[in-house]
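Run log, item B.
One chain of 257 residues. Sequence copied directly from the ordering sheet:
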Amino acid sequence: MSGNGKASASIVTFNNLAHVTELLGSMRRCLDLQKLDVFMSDNASSDGTVEFVEERYPQIRVLRNPRNLGFGAAHNQVLPLLHSQYHVLINPDIVFVEDALAPLFAYLDDHPDVAMVTPCIRNPDGSVQELPRLRPRLKYLLARRFEGHFAWARHLCREYVRADERFEEPTDIETCTGSFCVIRTEVFERIGGFDERFFLYFEDNDLSERASEYGRLVLCPQTQVIHHYQRAAMVSRRALASQIRSMVRYFNKYGWR
């Protein structure tokens, strides 16, 4: 882990007590929390998340939001408080199995032209999580709705996540997942953090688009974290509606492609 003041991290929570318990336990095992400024921005949880963290992890600064601000807006709450070189965005459903931060910080140290990095993200069973690595395009998003039914959709989905490539060395990608990534704090501040018009979904794609103006985005497969990934939009009408609103906002902003 890098030295004091070099790194900060933010976690956005909303009734995630079980996941937060597992995440923070894994951070305590794998990281030196004294060398990482950790913030938790809570979106008005009612399940005891805030009380648990304040009691068990007094070194974590908890920001209590009066309502659910959304993913990006809650992360942005920490912007005025940062004094770090690198900032880590962590979903509450992430689990550390090793010190994944040290190699990512070292890579950024050695590559000043890189703005954001993300590690290999795995499913709980150890398989590689196939997350998008290309910019969103309409054909990819349509394919994801039908990948279980048509060969053409499965082909496009594999293209979207670059499933047929072997990632053994650091590789440039077009988008970093908001579930876990490291961004230079200077870049995060320059772009004003997340675009708060994206309540949920596409906020990480938008952040990647704007961060890429200041440097490369890189997948570093030499280290890993676990992610309890759930495609809520595939099963929840409310989540699907939120995803569609964000999709329209994203393509209106960057062009329909």
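Observations after the first pass:
- The mean pLDDT is 94.
- The longest helix spans residues 237-254.
Flagged for discussion on Thursday.
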